[in-house]
Q: What sequence folds into this?
């Protein structure tokens, strides 16, 4: 067996020593403690694969310690041992999260068999987590960083410089703009690229385990604003005490989150040494068609379909749509089209997004940048398209960067109702 770690929690020093010798014979590194409080302190300091927990620790109940153990290291396996074994106590231990139950007296072979089963379960969970991570990385191959957008190019240039440092990075941007993909790229280009890449999602209940797993590598915080106060405190401590590079991401307004008390200000100060803000897709309009073509080729290959192309109306719809879900929504729309279209041409209905008005003037001239049309014709068409897809005139005015009264005058001038 390869080396592994065990925490023995028993108030009897003699039993702790017996269990230590038994498990060390199975190549385990063993720490023995005599109380639940000492066990939780040990779990805060170091990572363990298996906990061997006595059901009664003096006047304390070992059962009550189980959820606190799992809060600190979610993927740990707990083997409960007791001299007062009953069916009810065994069921209760399992309900609270124990992996196995071992009645006293037990033989060394029984102890080793129980902990080996527990260890195998832990390793299986790790293999599954690694497989999920590899699938995430495979999915990331759908993304690309080539761009015609000056704004996004500046972000990528800053990212390339930041990647080689060890300082924390804060990624900001709307949902679907590619923050997770950029976080992985920063890890792959950075000094810790040979270390682990661990993702922390949700409230961060498993943050102790994640920090332990990320040592020597990178901890990617999927959504900073969702972390519980306790998780934020532990993350702040990790910035000071752990050999970890932290890349945090958020799609929320950071200043509002700090004012509301949902994000610690001292944590934010530590994280935003380097802040990269990814622009939404609507601000990278020159990238929309190349990205759509890239996703189209990838989706056709993945779905084992022949080569596809976009119809003229589908191309107009893609270019004119605001893409509130950004890259993720564009990729999903193209994948949907490949699945639903009889081929080989993608139409607007296949994409599942609104169609754009035909870009022609009353004399049949194409309305496009650089076309032989006047500024008034171009402005009229642009305002008409914004109004057509905005939920209200006020929203359209905000998008256009003008006030509602100015928009009303332009509507009257251009005959837009």
A:
């Amino acid at each position: 067996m390869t080396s592994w770690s065990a925490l023995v929690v028993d108030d009897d020093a003699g039993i702790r020593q017996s269990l230590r010798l038994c498990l060390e014979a199975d190549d385990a590194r063993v720490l023995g403690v005599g109380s639940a409080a000492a066990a939780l302190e040990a779990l805060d300091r170091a990572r363990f694969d298996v906990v061997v927990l006595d059901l009664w620790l003096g006047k304390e109940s070992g059962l009550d310690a189980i959820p606190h153990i799992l809060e600190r290291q979610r993927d740990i396996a707990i083997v409960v041992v007791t001299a007062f074994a009953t069916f009810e106590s065994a069921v209760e231990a399992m309900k609270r999260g124990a992996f196995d139950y071992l009645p006293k007296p037990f033989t060394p072979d029984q102890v080793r068999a129980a902990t080996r089963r527990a260890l195998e379960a832990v390793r299986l969970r790790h293999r599954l987590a690694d497989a999920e991570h590899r699938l995430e990385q495979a999915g990331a191959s759908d993304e690309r960083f080539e761009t015609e957008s000056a704004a996004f190019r500046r972000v990528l240039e800053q990212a390339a410089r930041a990647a080689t440092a060890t300082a924390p990075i804060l990624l900001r941007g709307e949902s679907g703009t590619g923050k997770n993909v950029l976080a992985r790229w920063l890890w792959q280009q950075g000094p810790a690229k040979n270390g682990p890449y661990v993702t922390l999602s949700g409230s961060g209940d498993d943050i102790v385990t994640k920090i332990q797993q990320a040592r020597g590598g990178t901890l990617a915080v999927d959504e900073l604003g969702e972390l519980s106060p306790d998780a934020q405190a532990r993350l702040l401590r990790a910035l000071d005490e752990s050999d970890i590079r932290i890349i945090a991401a958020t799609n929320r307004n950071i200043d509002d989150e700090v004012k509301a008390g949902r994000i610690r200000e001292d944590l934010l100060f530590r994280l935003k040494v380097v802040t990269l803000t990814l622009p939404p897709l609507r601000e990278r309009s020159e990238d929309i068609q190349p990205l759509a073509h890239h996703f189209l080729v990838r989706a056709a290959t993945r779905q084992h379909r022949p080569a596809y192309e976009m119809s003229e109306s589908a191309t107009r719809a893609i270019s004119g749509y605001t893409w509130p879900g950004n890259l993720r929504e564009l990729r999903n729309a193209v994948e949907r089209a490949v699945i639903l279209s009889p081929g080989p041409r993608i139409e607007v209905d296949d994409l599942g997004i609104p169609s754009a008005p035909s870009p022609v003037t009353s004399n049949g001239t194409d309305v496009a940048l650089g076309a032989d049309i006047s500024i008034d014709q171009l402005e009229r068409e642009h305002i008409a398209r914004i109004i057509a897809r905005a939920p209200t005139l006020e929203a359209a005015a905000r998008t256009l960067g003008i006030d509602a009264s100015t928009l009303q005058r332009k509507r009257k001038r251009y005959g837009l109702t």
Q: What stands out?
A: The first helix runs from residue 13 to 24. Residues 284-351 form a domain with the Helicase, Ruva Protein; domain 3 fold (CATH 1.10.8.60). The first strand starts at residue 4 and ends at 9.
